């Protein structure tokens, strides 16, 4: 395997990982920001108030974006397997 091919595969791996995890992380971060602003405004400092909505947001985003995430990961895996003959 050449070094440029290894770098390309690593870059594709990281890009696919970032792309797949972005909907869950983005929605969870947005919910956390909204809850934090509400906590500051109301001065309610409850630990479960931040944990439960973020957990629900992550679960809902996995349900909504799950098929797309799985399809993207499967396309990456098929592309990786198809590149094996060119590596040798």
Automatic annotation (TrEMBL):
<feature type="transmembrane region" description="Helical">
    <location>
        <begin position="55"/>
        <end position="78"/>
    </location>
</feature>
<keyword id="KW-0282">Flagellum</keyword>
<protein>
    <submittedName>
        <fullName>Flagellar biosynthetic protein FliQ</fullName>
    </submittedName>
</protein>
<keyword id="KW-0969">Cilium</keyword>
<dbReference type="Pfam" id="PF01313">
    <property type="entry name" value="Bac_export_3"/>
</dbReference>
<keyword id="KW-1003">Cell membrane</keyword>
<keyword id="KW-0812">Transmembrane</keyword>
<keyword id="KW-0966">Cell projection</keyword>
<comment type="similarity">
    <text>Belongs to the FliQ/MopD/SpaQ family.</text>
</comment>
<keyword id="KW-1133">Transmembrane helix</keyword>
<keyword id="KW-0472">Membrane</keyword>
<feature type="transmembrane region" description="Helical">
    <location>
        <begin position="12"/>
        <end position="35"/>
    </location>
</feature>
<dbReference type="InterPro" id="IPR002191">
    <property type="entry name" value="Bac_export_3"/>
</dbReference>
């Amino acid at each position: 395997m050449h070094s440029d091919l290894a770098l390309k595969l690593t870059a594709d791996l990281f890009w696919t990982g970032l792309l797949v995890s972005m909907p869950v992380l983005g929605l969870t971060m947005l919910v956390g920001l909204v809850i934090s602003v509400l906590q500051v405004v109301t001065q309610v400092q409850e630990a479960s108030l931040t944990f439960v909505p973020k957990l629900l947001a992550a679960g809902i985003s996995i349900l909504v974006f799950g098929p797309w995430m799985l399809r993207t990961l499967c396309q990456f895996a098929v592309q990786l397997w198809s590149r094996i003959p060119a590596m040798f």
